[in-house]
Design brief:
By secondary structure, this protein is mainly α. The protein has a domain at about 10-90. The chain contains 7 helices and no strands. The protein is globular. The N and C termini lie far apart (about 35 Å).
């Protein structure tokens, strides 16, 4: 795991954005993203990728940058460590992460896909379906209510 990314989704998305801008430019995940270039080409550009995966709420209003879940500001550099260094910073990161997940879940619900359809589309994987529509599943468990 690259210490400039850790397991942060916002930083991973920034790597993907930079890959679309210039696949040969320095990028903490550049080599791995280049390996999957055929996959990323399916979406045309970063905007197509972000729209397909309903990631709009992590982008700036002009869609030119990824907003940091740590600070809320547009990402400009990969600075290690990629994790929070204080309880306050972690609390802000957690709050922004939860807000993003709720906003994305709202976008998914607007598509009109029921939890049952989601599970069927994901080969019956109730864990994946719970991630898409968590209100249809018991809290903390992928079991159906």
């Amino acid at each position: 795991m690259d210490p400039r990314i850790a397991d942060r989704f916002d930083l991973t998305l920034e790597c993907i954005r930079r890959h679309y801008l210039d696949p040969l430019a320095e990028n903490p995940l550049g080599e791995r993203l280049a390996y999957y270039a055929d996959f990323f080409s399916l979406f045309g550009d970063f905007d197509g990728y972000a729209r397909f995966f309903l990631l709009n709420d992590l982008l700036t209003s002009d869609r030119s940058a990824v907003r940091s879940l740590m600070s809320g500001e547009p990402l400009s550099a990969f600075v290690a460590p990629a994790f929070a260094v204080s309880p306050t910073e972690y609390g802000e990161y957690r709050q922004r992460s939860i807000a993003f997940v709720k906003a994305r879940n709202g976008r998914i619900l607007q598509l009109g896909v029921s939890p049952e359809q989601s599970a069927d589309a994901m080969h019956g994987c109730s864990v994946c379906a719970a991630a898409i529509a968590p209100t249809a599943y018991s809290r903390g468990s992928p079991q159906r209510r």
